[in-house]
């Protein structure tokens, strides 16, 4: 597992860029070599030259609790699409889709706090994923000074981009979400039943000694992820999540193998969930152009009818809503990106 020990340039705005080959450039740096060697699928079945698989740079964004890490695909001279991954995933979830997208449109894929290579929250702080995530998007938008942003999200990331588009309706131009319409709705009874358990688990994880953190071989780790995702990812795609989702066990532990890099406390980070009325109220505020791609069979939601109800509300209030059902798993953008890319590209270039 590659660790974050390379030197980076750190401009005064708190954002640094790290080239995968060890050379560095800041946001205003050269884009040489970023548009070579690839092809993408267009909506009419043709192909176009696009980014290669390694046409990205590591990004470090300074935040009060540490850093948010990410991968910037394409030119640093243009405002990018901001892309957010799902719960307990990382920005590697977009590694197979980004090379198929228009090369002239950059994409910044970030690791959410506690995920991938981004800093964990300090001890004593809980993750309230939905509310924290909206503020993180705002923090990044303000740091860069972006205007009229385009957002892209999968699962949790899609719920966050939905909430941001509702909270700042005049400042979002386009919204692209995969297999999520808005924040998932949980019954209040279920939340009441699990609150005590979640708080105890949070405290247990917070005080878990480093020596007790599970350590696995690469093959064991891959099998664990495949089993946990229950068919949503496959042998080919899981490696993209593991590249940022695992790290070598520290030498002082004298243990060979890998740990998951994500914060264990994320497992109990779903307090503060939404009621249907809240989701509908936010949906009514969204005004931007929306592309929603739903997997078939996709995710099994606790309240599946909410998805269609949110889409209907969006159609009544947003400037444009394109709703596509595409064969695929919940991770269809990662497992079968060739099915997703034509819809995304047409929406970006023509909508």
From TrEMBL:
<dbReference type="GO" id="GO:0016787">
    <property type="term" value="F:hydrolase activity"/>
</dbReference>
<protein>
    <submittedName>
        <fullName>Alpha/beta hydrolase</fullName>
    </submittedName>
</protein>
<dbReference type="GO" id="GO:0016020">
    <property type="term" value="C:membrane"/>
</dbReference>
<feature type="region of interest" description="Disordered">
    <location>
        <begin position="1"/>
        <end position="55"/>
    </location>
</feature>
<keyword id="KW-0378">Hydrolase</keyword>
<comment type="similarity">
    <text>Belongs to the AB hydrolase superfamily.</text>
</comment>
<dbReference type="InterPro" id="IPR029058">
    <property type="entry name" value="AB_hydrolase_fold"/>
</dbReference>
<dbReference type="InterPro" id="IPR050266">
    <property type="entry name" value="AB_hydrolase_sf"/>
</dbReference>
<feature type="compositionally biased region" description="Polar residues">
    <location>
        <begin position="1"/>
        <end position="29"/>
    </location>
</feature>
<feature type="compositionally biased region" description="Polar residues">
    <location>
        <begin position="39"/>
        <end position="53"/>
    </location>
</feature>
<dbReference type="Pfam" id="PF00561">
    <property type="entry name" value="Abhydrolase_1"/>
</dbReference>
<feature type="domain" description="AB hydrolase-1">
    <location>
        <begin position="80"/>
        <end position="205"/>
    </location>
</feature>
<dbReference type="InterPro" id="IPR000073">
    <property type="entry name" value="AB_hydrolase_1"/>
</dbReference>
